[in-house]
Each structure stands twice: as C-alpha cells, then as structure tokens.
Amino acid sequence: MAQSLIDRIRNSSLKNKIFFSVTAVILLISVLIALFTRWILISTLTSELKQRGLGIAYSIAESCRGFLLTNDVNQLTSLIFDARLGARRELVGYVFILDKQGQILAHTFTRDFPQQIALANRIAPDKDHRIQLMNAGREAIYDVAVAVNEGIYRIGSVHVGLYKKHIDQLINKLRTTFLGFVSVVILLFFIISHHLSKTITHPITRLTMVSDEISRGIFDVQLDMEKGLQHGGVKDEVRQLSRSFINMTNRIKESQAKLKESDNKYRSLFASGPNPIFVLDRKTLKILSANPSAEETYGYTKEELVGRPFTDLGPFELDENQWTEFNAQHAGNVTTISSKVQYFKKGYQAFYVNVHASPAFYEDKNALIVATTDISEMVEKDSQLIQASKMTTLGEMSAGIAHELNQPLNAIKMGSEFLEMMIEKEERIPEHELYQIVREVSSQVDRAEGIIRRLRDFGRKTDFTKEKILINDPVNTVLEIIGRQLRLQNIDVQLQLTANLPPILAHHNRIEQVIFNLLTNARDAINLKEESGMGNHPRNIIIRSYAEDGQVAVAVSDTGIGIDPAVKAQIFEAFFTTKKMGEGMGLGLSITSGIVEDYGGKIHIHSEEGQGTTFNLSFPAVQQTPPGG
Amino acid sequence: MKNCIIWMLALMALGCGNTHENQTSTTQSLGISDNEILVGSSLALGGHAGYLGTQTLHGAMAYIRHVNQRGGIYGRRIKVITYDDGYDPPRCVTNTQKLIVQDKVFSLFCYVGTPTTVKILPLVEEARIPVVGMFTGANALREPLNRYLINVRASYYQETGAAVTHLVEAIKLKKIAVFYQYDAYGFDGLKGTEIALRPYGLVPVATGTYIRGTLDVEEGLRKIMAAQAEAVVMIGTYEPCAKFIRLARERHFSPVFYNVSFVGADELARLLGRIDENIIVTQVVPPPEVSGSNKELWGAREYVALLKQYYPSDRPNFVSLEGYINAKVLVEGLERAGRELNREKFISAIESIQKLDLGIANLLSFSPRDHQGLERVYFTHLQDGKFVWRNH
What are chain B's domains? Predict the structure, then answer.
C-alpha cells in the first residue's frame, strides 16, 4: 500500500508533489508537536494536579485540627463541603476525614460512602502525605491523603480525591484546540501550497503548451509567453528557464528559416539544374521524383517517370561495397556509379551518360539521388579526336607502311617481270617454276592485303560496345605494322608476353592505338637520346604482359632519354609535347590516358632521366565464370 | 489524504470523552415506596431561631397531616423526617448529607434560613435532589436558576425593593441605614437594599452588623445613630432586631424600622410588646387572621382551620402560613407528577403549575425559567402589639 502510494506520488504532477510534500511535512510537524505537547502537558498537569490536591488537603488539615479534637462532625462536614465550592467541584471528586482509628468522620458523598476507598491509601507512619491513583466506581481518581497531627502524634487524616479526568478534559480541550489550529494551518497551507505549486507549475505548464505548439510548427507564441512571465524576478528560476526557452525557440526559428532557405535553394537547383536528376527508392530503385531536366532529356512526363524502375532507363549496377557504403549513411558523398554508359530515351533512343549517385533521405525513406549527365557530345568529340589522332599515327606510319607494302609489290614486280621476260623470249617456263612464281605472287598479294586490312581496321571508327579482348593480340598487331620499321631504325624489340592471360573489356583497335602511341614514344625517346649524343647505348624496347591481383597489365619499357621530373605531372595533359614543332600534336598520351581510364585501367610511369621509361598499363580482368559454376 | 482524515477523526473522537455521567435511575426515585413518600428537612427547631423552624414545620405539617389523613397522594403518605440544625450551617450540612445518604429521602423540604440553605447547594446539585419551599428570600437560591431548587416566596430583593420604594417615595426619607446579620442572609438583604437605593442616587448612610446567634447590636446601633438615619433596614432574626429597637427606643432614637419577612413578625411583636415605634415588616404571605369577608383569602382561612385542628396550641402566624403554603406546593407537585413518581418528573410537574390560586391573593406560577412561585410582597406594620396588613 505504501509502495503504491509512493508510486502514485511519484507519477503525479509537479503541482501535486509540491502540495503533498508540504502537507506531509506540516502533518508530521503537527503530529510531533502534538505528541511532545501531550507529553509535557500530561506530566506537568499531573504534577500540578497533585500539588493543588496537596494544597487543598493541607489547608483542610490545618483547618480541621480543632474540630477533630472536639470531634465536631458538623463543622468538619461543613468544612469539607466548603473545600469543594465553586470551580473546585470540577477538580475535587470527594473529601473525607478519618480519625486516628481510620473511622470516617465526615465525607462529601451524597451517596453511601464507598468503604473500599477509606483504607486504600494509608499514609506511612513516618510520612505526612501520600498520593495514590485509584478507581472509585468508574472513575480514575488521585487520592491525596494528608495526615493531621497534634504535636507529633497523628489524630486523623484528610483525603482529597482528584478527578484524573480533570487533566484528561484539559488535555482533550487542548487537543481539540490544537487539532483545530492544525486544521486551520493545514487548510492555510493547502491554499498556500496550492497557490505556490500553481505559481511554480503554471509557467511550466505554459512552457509545455508552447513547446507542444512549437513541435507542431507554430512559432508565433513567444511574445505572448514573454508577456506572461513578467511577474517573477530576474532571479526567478522559472523565468530563467523561460528565457532560455525563448532563446531556444528563436534559434530553432532561425535554423528553420535557414533550412527553408537552403531547401529552397536546393529545390531550385533540383528544378532548374541542367542535368537530369532522379530520386530513387534505395531498395526498389523505383523513381520517386525527377526534375524537369529529366523529363526533357528522357522524353517522359513526370507522371510517367514516377514509379518506373530506374533500370528501365539504363543500367544501374552497384557492387556490394557501394551498397553497404550507401546503406550505412542517410546522406553522404556523391559516388560515380558508371561513366559513359548507354541510357535510353523514350522510344529506345540511346545516348551516353555519366551516372552519379548519393544517398539521401526523401519523404521519410532512404533514397538515392541519381544524376545522369548527358555526355553524348563529349563522347562524339572524343571519338573524333581519337580518329584524328589515329590519322596522324597513320601518317606517321605511312613511311613504314609504304616500305612494308613495297616489299610484296617488289616481289610481285619481280615475278611479273620474270614472266614477261620469259614470254618475250618465248621460252617455256617449266611448270613447277611457273607454279612457284604464281604462288609467290599470290602470297605477296595476300601479304599486302593483310597490311591494308590492318590499316583499314585501325583507321575504322569504332562504336562504344566493349568486347572481351586478349591484351597480347593488339600488341602483336601493332608490331606487325611497325615492328619492321623499328628494326629498320636499329631498335631491338623484345616481346615477353605471358600466354593465357584473362581477357579485358576494351576495344581492340583502341588498345592498338595505345600500344602504338607508347611504341612511337619509346622510339622517339630512344632516338632523342641518340641525338643528344650520349654515346653508345642499347636501343631496346621491351614489351611485357602479365596478370597481377585481378589485373591484366602490359608494360612498355625503353632505354630512351627518360622523362624530366619537372614535366612528369604534365605529360597526360592535352597538347603537351616535348617534341619539335610539327612533329606531334601532343595528344598521344592524353588520348592514351583517356582510353585507359575508359576501360577502368590505370597508367603507372616509372622513369629515370637518361636511363629509360616504363609505362605500365593495368586493366581489370574480366571475371571468368568458373566452369561448371 | 483519506488516511489523514481518519486519523483526525480518531483524535477528535478521543477528544470527546463523556463528561457527564448519567444519573442512575435508582437515585431518581429514592424515597418512594408503595405507600410512602419520604421528604426530609433540616431546620432550626431550637435555639435563637427555633421559633422560625418550629412554626414553619407546624404550618407545613398541618397541611401534610391533612393530606395524609385524606389518604395521601396516590395512596402514598408523606413522611417528613426532620433534623434540628439550630440555624447552624455546619449542622444543616451534616443533616442534609444524612437525609440524602442515610434516609434516602425523595425530596428536601421546608429549609429555614439563608446561611443554612445556601450551604447545602453543593449537595443538592450533586445528588440532584429537589428542595421545595425554603424559608429564605436569598438571591443565591434564585440566580443562577437551579433546576432542583423550588422557591415559593418572593425574594429579599423584592422585599427590600418594595420597602425602599415605600420609604423613599411614600414617606420621603433619604437617610437610610442598614442593620444586618453578618452572614449570607444579611449580605443578601444589604445588597437588595443598595440595589433598590441606587436608582434614587442614594447609598446607605450607615451600616451596622451583628454576629449570628449573638445579641451584640450596640456597636451597630451606635454607628447608625451617629449617621442620624431616618430609616433602618433590618436584616436579622427577631431577637437581635427586637433588642436593637428596644435599645434605640431607650436612647430616644426613633427612625422608621423596617424588617424583612424572615425576622418572624409575630415573635418580634411579642418580644417588643405594645410600643408605639414605627415598625414595618414586609411579608411574603398575607396576614393569617383576616376578616372573614375577604373572599380572596380563603386559603388563609383554610390554614387557620387546619392549624387549629392539628396544632391547637399554636396561634396562626406569618411563618407557619408560609410553611403551610410550601406544603401545598409540594403536594400539588406530587399530584401533578402522577403515580410513576421520580425526581425529574416531580420538577417538571412543579414547572407546569401556572396561575394556581392558593387563596392568598397571590397566584402561584412556575416555569422552567422561573423557579419562584409567588411574587407579591405584603406590607405590615406594628399596631397594638401586632403586625397588621397595611393594604395600600
């Protein structure tokens, strides 16, 4: 029961707590005071009563001595009745006088004298009084006995009966008064504590109300509140609380405004941004919202877009790492999902985009903000540039190619001249010789044709669909075209190709172009070293291919002049060249780098000035589906 | 909260003990048996006030014996137990205690004298026993009202009041002295006189006293003579008062002497003999011996007849007539209380008496707020050795 009471108090409002504690304290104090007062009262009053009784008894004893000696019962009776006159009747229950034999001489009873009290309180011979509590009938009475002496001998005794209830009545009266007083005090404190708790809790209740309103988004309450809090002093805690509350509200209001501003800013960015932006559900990848640019770009209306799986528009693939990274955060960094991927407008019209995504929180859902940047034009320009660069390369290759073509042509010429001469001589050509010549001509034509086909392949503009290629193939093709040329320039090309490398996703002729660029740069670097007159030195180019950590790499090393560390950082910039004017456009390494990056590859350069340079290209290997998996 | 309230109530309940013990019903009907009603009286049957007691008792007994002879009240005869107290208050107290405790009387009856009767008030209150007909006009028996005290006669205040009015207005006297018995009786008369004088802007010019039971009146007389009083209000018994008048007469001091009824007018007259001093006594009963033509006073004649029957040697007198009237009130009350008698019923029965004609030209009325039956004061003056009604 006590526990439940404590719980009830604990769960009650602050107002009631204050009220209950004040009342409890008052009650406790009252009870303590009451008990204390009662204790004091009873002891004092009892002793006071006995003193009064003794006083009365002694005065009667003094007065009655003469009458006792003369045995004047009438006077004794009259005397003791007088002793009970007036207010004493409330106090003195009875008086009686005994002679020395203990016989009743006079008493104040108006009924038969209760004999049992006559001898109940005997005074010891050496004492002159005795007080004893006894029961006369129903009442508790203090019997005060006082001896009456003549000289040193006792001639009788006076007994005065004092009502104990006299004290009780007094105590009761005091108790009633005290109870009344306590009741009034409690009532007073009831009112005071009620008022007090109201004074304290009223502003708090208001604060609660106001914060409720604020949490509903209503901020126009504080003026009213400030007005309501003028009562308390500056040091009033509640007022201080209200102050800080108002400050807090102001701060919230400010940040709310800022938030709104930024929200508006971002909304307008979203709405007027040039790039299509989509909001996707992070789980289902369905479109939740899209900006006008998205509508324009993709040719769908917003209604058509919303609810449509984003994958309808194009591939959206994330590996596991990216997913966990996204799901770990509500909003965060922008990640490039894929670049130069093909997306489709309404009507299955393809175009190229870069896709960026960032996790966000949209309408209480985990979402993804996805931006697709239309890069079709750039891709077009890129391919034109690559084409142009190829043509340049072709131009550079033309001497070597011409020489290459010249050989079969010379052989054919030689064959055909021999035949002509034989026909003019009208000599008969032995059958096996003729056959040999014709076969030789045919094989030389084949050879020329192969050269031309390769050139044509190289020069052909490629589309963007990647294919699985083996890195060794383009290396071999390029060497077929310019290998002889390099040998003619006295450069020793060493091939250290690893067989059975995993394929990579790329374009064959672009990789050819990359290899070509690297070989011509190596050749140039070797020649440049010779020109700078560094004496005898090896003229070597080493081409290696190998697999390493899921990557397939090809490295082209030369023993050329090396790269000046000062320009190392710039060599991939477009139009940067170390060559003489008119010898190169400065696009070679820039394009190389662009191509490698398109395939997710990396270029690593190791170069020592005067010693040579190694270009190390690595590409992610295509995961082979394990057989039977 | 609920607990607090219970706690408080508990304390409150403890606070209210029963302060009044209930009168047990056994004491209510003490002194009543099937054929007897015991009443008790302590009065002066001898000594210096013996005349008053004896005559009161004879007057009362004349009627009670008459009633008993008639068959009593509801078959119960009234038995009166009397003890002599000799006008001594202590003896009166002992007697009364004896009557209550030993004799267990139903009611006290016919007490005589102020100091004696005043003394028994504590016993009366404690025992809750009725007292009917007290031969005293003391104010202490009238105020505050005590349920158990049934006064019949007019008070000393009324007597002295009427006398002072008479002295000041009719005889045009201003110098009024007071001679009184130095006890509760005398003080009461003195107070009554002073109260009556005050409206006239007067105070007693002198006061003289004597001690009850003595005849030491000389000092008082000297003081009153020195003040040259024109009238002396005397609150005493017949012997000292007679001596006072005789001494004054010897010293040729002859103011108007006025006595209250308690003096015992007939005895005073007898002691003084035939003198021509101007002596007035106020009475609370009419003179017993009146002309037969006065129809109003049939009660007085009835008294004379009964007294002659039961106490042939007694002469009718004021004191014994008062006792006789007291007995009539007692009997009237007992009759009205009915067969199932007890003390409370008896008191209520007395209180129900309204305007009862007792044949004394003075109607008897009680009520719960008025425990004095008669109001009238009769003026008598000494004429030819006898106090006669001065019917003015």
Answer: 28-154+296-375 (3.40.50.2300), 157-283 (3.40.50.2300)
Q: What is the DSSP letter of A366?
A: E
Let me know whether A261 and A277 are in one domain.
no
**Quick check: B23 contacting A, CB < 8 Å?**
no
pLDDT tens, A326-347? 777 666 677 777 777 888 888 8
Question: What's the pLDDT at B2?
Answer: 44
Q: Residue B105 above 90 pLDDT?
A: yes
Do A344 and A396 lie in a common domain? no
pLDDT average, residue stretch B184-202: 94
Shared-domain flag, residues A613 and A525: yes
> Given CB atoms, is A4 within the 8 Å cutoff of chain B?
no
Do A398 and A366 reside in the same domain of the chain? no
Domain carrying residue A414: 380-620
Amino acid at A622: V
Lowest mean pLDDT among A10-14, A380-384, B159-163, B266-270: A10-14
Pairing of strands A602-608, A612-620: antiparallel
**pLDDT tens for residues A214-260?**
777 776 665 555 555 555 556 677 777 777 877 887 888 888 888 88
Q: Is the pLDDT of residue A584 over 60?
A: no
Residue type, B231: A
Q: What is the distance between the alpha carbons of residues A484 and A487, in angstroms, rounded to a whole number? A: 5
Specify the pLDDT at position A230. Answer: 54
Among A336, A357, A374, residue at a domain's last position: A374
As a whole number of angstroms, the distance between CA A597 and CA A589 comes to 12
Nearest C-alpha in B relative to A84: B122
**Residue A533 in domain:** yes
First to last CA, chain A: 72
Chain B residues lying within 8 Å of A27, measured CB to CB: 4
- How many structural domains is chain A composed of? 4
Q: Is A496 on the interface with B (CB under 8 A)?
A: no
Distant-in-sequence, close-in-space partners of A178: CB < 8 Å, separation ≥ 6: A33, A34, A37
Instruction: Write out chain B residues lying below 8 Å of A107, CB-based.
Output: 97
A198 in any annotated domain: no
Higher pLDDT: B6 or A41? It is: A41
Give the pLDDT of residue B107: 95
Q: Is the ipTM of this complex over 0.95?
A: no
Residues A465 and A499 in one domain: yes
Nearest-by-CA chain B residue for A176 = B15
Among A267, A283, A304, the domain-final residue is A267
Same domain, A446 and A343: no
C-alpha torsion sign, points B325, B330, B333, B339 = negative
User: Is A214 a domain residue?
Assistant: no
Q: Give the CATH number, domain containing residue A364.
A: 3.30.450.20
Q: Is A526 helix (H, G, I), strand (E, B) or coil?
A: helix
Asked if A110 has any chain B CB less than 8 Å from its own CB, the reply is yes
Residue A478's CATH number: 3.30.565.10
Report whether B206 contacts B238 (CB < 8 A).
no
A384 and A528, same domain (yes or no) = yes
A10 with A54, same domain: the answer is yes
**Residue B350 and residue B237 in contact, taking contact as beta carbons nearer than 8 Å:** no
Return the residue in B104, B126, B146 with the most chain A beta carbons within 10 A, the one to mutate for interface testing: B126
Predicted TM-score of the model (pTM)? 0.57
Mean pLDDT of B63-91: 94
Contact A27/B at CB under 8 A: yes
Judge residue B117's burial from the number of C-beta atoms within 10 Å of its C-beta, 0-12 exposed, 13-18 middle, 19 or more buried.
Answer: buried
A27–B88 CB contact, under 8 Å: no
Average pLDDT of the residues in A101-109: 89
CA-CA distance, A499 to B200, in Å (whole number)? 161
Distance from CA of B349 to the nearest CA of A (A): 24
As a whole number, mean pLDDT of residues A425-453 equals 84
